[in-house]
Amino acid sequence: MTATFPRLASVSLLLLPALGHAASGSAYATGKAAGYVVGGLVLFWVAKRVLGDWAWARWLIVPVVAVAILRMNAGPGSMDTAQIQALAATVKAEDVVMYSTTECVYCRQAKAWLQQNGFAFTECNMSVNRTCEREFMAYKATGTPFLVVRGKRMDDGFDSDQFLALLRS
pLDDT digit string (tens) for 56-95? Predict the structure, then answer.
């Protein structure tokens, strides 16, 4: 019973910042909140194994991971809905081009996020338009959705935090 309370307290400390970030909305879509928690728990477990007799020191990891997670939340993903919509009002359809295919689930998710937040964009569906396919090939892109945001590429699919950062830069 004595060891259970510190374990629960440490897991809670790891979960709270991740849940706070998740509340911003983008963390659930990108899976970052789960990544933070899993990463912290793995680090905690590895420290327990590596430190051996110094296992008590692993408890020092808990506040360090919690602070690191909180600091990560200061990026563009921490924008509230009003700020995102204000940014969206400054974006023209030609500023954002999304190369997609009809059957791409991730393309539909990206499109829904963009529409939900009021971003104008141009969708170039390669399943329908061969010109889109040629442009996609010219970029040497490897997957969809592939976005070009004000001339800058998003090569690793759609990530709302990266998208917002590209618009703000």
Answer: 665 666 666 666 655 554 444 568 889 999 999 999 999 9
Task: Give the length of the chain.
Answer: 169
Could you tell me which of 72, 5, 68, 15 has the C-alpha nearest to residue 41? 15
- The structure tokens listed for 82 are 């009003």
pLDDT at 127: 96
Q: Kindly report the number of other CB atoms within 10 A of residue 43's CB atom.
A: 16
Distances (CA, A) of 62 to 68, 73, 77, 119: 10, 17, 23, 39
Scanning the structure block, which residue is given the tokens 């996609």?
A: 136
Instruction: Choose among 165, 155, 166: nearest CA to 79.
Output: 165
Helices (H), the chain: 4-22, 26-30, 32-51, 61-72, 81-88, 105-116, 130-138, 160-168
Q: Flag whether the pTM goes above 0.70.
A: no
Domain ranges of the chain: 4-74, 81-168
Fold observed for domain 81-168: Glutaredoxin (3.40.30)
Whole-angstrom distance, CA of residue 96 vs CA of residue 145:
12
